[in-house]
Amino acid sequence: MKKIPVEQAVGCALCHDLTEMRDGFKGVAFKRNHVITSDDLEHLLNMGKRHVFVWDPDVEEVHEDECALRMAAACAVEGAHFEGPSEGKVVLKADRDGLFTVDLDLLEKLNNIPDVTVSTLPNHYPVQAGCRLSSMRIVPLVTQKRNISLFEDLCRKGNLFQLLPYRNLKVGIIITGSEIYHHRIEDRFEKVLRRKLHKFPAQILGTEICDDELDMIVGAAERFLHLGAGLLIFTGGMSVDPDDLTPSAVRKLGADIRAYGVPSQPGNMSLVAYLNDVAVLGVPGAAISMPTTTLDVFLPRIFTGVQFTGEDLNRLANGGLCQLCGNCHYPNCTFGRY
After folding, report:
1. Torsion angle defined by CA atoms of residues 121, 123, 125 and 127, in that order, rounded to the nearest 10 degrees
2. pLDDT classification of 59: cutoffs 50, 70, 90
3. Contact, 92 vs 161, CB < 8 A?
4. Which of 124, 147, 164 marks a domain boundary?
5. Are 80 and 94 in contact (CB under 8 A)?
6. Which residues constitute the domain of residue 109?
7. Residue 203 sits in a domain of what CATH number?
8. Residue 338: is its pLDDT beyond 60?
9. What CA–CA distance (Å, rounded) separates 271 from 264?
10. pLDDT digit string (tens) for 293-329?
11. What CA–CA distances, in Å, run from 173 to 27, 83, 206, 260?
12. How far apart, in whole angstroms, are the C-alpha atoms of residue 192 and residue 195?
């Protein structure tokens, strides 16, 4: 685009909307792409417009609205839609509940393109239908065509965003501890787990309370597996005491333990394992006393069917120390998402 005096703009197309304010009125007097005529000059001067931006056909530039539409098309997401452009910006919104994921390497490359800005929710963020997921625009009114072409080329090489749907899972709950089995104390885990599972498409097959006996714990798990469980949750028995047998029971089942102990608190002594496609969780006592723990981090991803790796669990260290402030806005906070 180029800036020229209004008297020289006859026959030229405006680069952007021109807003007029007079006598309590505020609105668009001239729309973008309006071709200026001699009859418009007095009106423009009365608006205080001595100069206007018009398109220069010899310059390889793209307007912000066209940029926004092309950026949105390059980042199409199943289960979500873009709204806009408004003021040169498009917004991505979720059409369904699920887990929002971001290719962080690609996101960094896109934001390194001159004039381009893409902001998002954190990677692996659980969302509900209607949530805003991302906003993108260029900063100036126009940018060079090569910048948007580079944006499109990079997006073709990967998926910047995904919105992974939750799948239906049958869940078996195994509560361990001789003190609960022999009715010395009342179990408090089941209510907590049912409340957390209520957020997902979970069919709870039942709850079995087991003594601190390895065969009893393994037997309870095998019965739930026979009923088609896709998720087994063990509570208690997660510390280093001699009577804490949950990790041993998970090993005896033949599950592949991805982590026993994760670099994230509260819920440090958690266990994550898989028995083929069945997810297995060992939940420590922090889940009873703390409103948000690593369990809340694990469940959204487990219900998508995407398995954790050991590397994934180690990455929870960044943002994995919860301050339990109740008002967290730090984007890397693992717990501020729940």
Report:
1. 60
2. low
3. yes
4. 164
5. yes
6. 61-164
7. 3.40.980.10
8. no
9. 12
10. 999 999 999 999 999 999 999 998 888 887 555 555 4
11. 61, 42, 6, 19
12. 5
